[in-house]
Amino acid sequence: MATETEILAARRARAGRLREECGVELFPARVPRPLDAIADVLARFGESDAAALERAAAAACVAGRITGLRSFGKAAFVTLQGDGERLQVWVKRAEVGEERHAEFKLYEAGDFMWARGPLVRTKTGELTVEAREIGFLAKSLRPLPEKFHGLQDVEMRYRQRYLDLLVNPESRQVAVARARMVAAIRGFLDERRFLEVETPILQPIYGGAAAQPFMTHHRAYDQKLYLRISFELYLKRLIIGGLDRVYEIGRDFRNEGVSRKHNPEFSMLEVYQAYADYTDMMELLESLVADVALRVIGTTQVERDGVEIDLAPPWPRRSMAELIREACGVDIESATELETLRAALRSRSVPGVDPDASSSWASLVDAIFSETVEPGLSGPIFVLDYPVALSPLAKRDAERPHLVERFEAFIGGMEIANAFSELNDPDDQRERFVAQAEAARGGDADAHPVDDDFLLALEHGMPPTGGLGLGIGRLAMVLTGAAHLREVKLFPHLRPRD
Q1: Cα-Cα-Cα-Cα dihedral of 458, 459, 463, 465, to 10°?
Q2: 484 and which of 260, 281, 379, 489 could share a cystine (Cβ 3.0–4.6 Å)?
Q3: How far is CA 419 from CA 172, 282, 384, 406, 465, in A?
């Protein structure tokens, strides 16, 4: 078997022959016009029989990558791929001429070419362009992965996504489904009079989530900046400014570990609606997810880990404390201090939760919930009534001031969305920012810094507001059946090769 070095040398040698013996430009700037998309040809003539093609004098000029090539001396069948669709081209020396056919014999799988001619049906019934003219469009100096085995190495699929998309149709289907999902989300919100906006990615103070940021430096201003961990505090400034319904779909950056549900760079949808609360956000989210599912996959029925899930509203609602109590017997409403919660955990010997690994009561509650409750939430389900300490930006429950009006939505054991009745009392917000700053000094790396500029904005008055954050990648996992976030990201973050 030839080595990689020998294969690459052979392909470069053929490229040299194309240029020197045949006078072919290996990377021309122009393609023939008019050019027919392969998908359009298939859509228009895919059901036509040979007689119908002849009566219509059907013809096409197509271009694509050569993914298959079967030569029979004076004739050859070529499979061209363009935009995920494939069409056969029949190249005969008698039709294209001696000179062009000699050039064609140097084409290889992976190269790009064009062909123009009538559309026919072969003896096997395949729609085919019977080429009268052909030409070269671009040289592939490296071979494509082997046809029948494809690209199976998971690590290589992520690092060389372009090859994955070329040879694994299911990867292309996931990418297309995600793109359509984002378009459907925009369509849903636009129809409801929400305004799409953009907020800064580089921020002097990060906030809006419990996470550690990435840092950078602006040389012109000699200023330390952070890549945003959330859009929240800027979008709420827009609510204060009178834009009553706003949303943003964009990137967040969190300096955290990598897992099947986490990537340091990820896409989020955040929505804010004035004169609304978290119950309105529940109705918005369950309607949005069901609507998007119907637009993208044609049904609200999905499967996760062998469990059939119906995304159609209404979704059930359960309290966080109740779910934790059912899962492991720990009552977070009575164990309201870090040490008492640690003691309760030790007495129950909750598997997977280290009482001493968390530096704050809030982070320990979060660890308990993530370990004991979250994996079993096949959903869809809204988890409600979060403790204040876990939610520094949410409004208190008027009747239970130790809780906030917040929910997280779960599908298939995975959080997909988080929402609040937004805190609009600037004095309460300042107290919670200060408490977060104290937690940070005590070792909580995910605590919020104090954002005086946001507090200044809040002091000008913000109406009652509902806010929602939805993970784009996680919803894509739900709709496509992907097991890992990397499968729905075209270019996921990976460990360095060395």
Answers
A1: 20
A2: 260
A3: 32, 8, 10, 6, 11
CB atoms within 10 A of CB 82: 18
Write the pLDDT tens digit of every residue in 268-308. 999 999 999 999 999 999 999 999 999 999 999 999 888 99
* CB contact at 8 A, 62 and 114: yes
Look up residue 221 and give its two tokens: 């201003």
CA distances from 182 to 186, 293, 432, 487 (A): 6, 11, 34, 16
| Residue showing tokens 């704050």 | 360
106-152 residue pLDDT tens: 999 999 999 999 999 999 999 999 999 999 999 999 998 875 455 56
List all residues 6 or more positions away from 124 whose beta carbon is below 8 Å from its beta carbon.
none
First to last CA, the chain: 28
- How does DSSP classify residue 101? H
d(CA 216, CA 429): 27
CA 400 to mean position of chain CA atoms:
37
- H helices of 123-253, in order, are 154-159, 161-167, 169-191, 232-240
Catalogue all structural domains in the chain, each as residue range(s) with its CATH number: 4-138 (2.40.50.140), 167-316+379-488 (3.30.930.10)
448-457 contacts, C-beta under 8 A, 24 or more apart: 448/207, 448/210, 448/392, 448/393, 449/205, 449/206, 449/207, 451/205, 451/207, 451/233, 453/205, 454/205, 454/207, 454/233, 454/236, 454/237, 454/429, 455/426, 455/429, 455/430, 457/236, 457/237, 457/240
In one letter, which amino acid is 474?
R
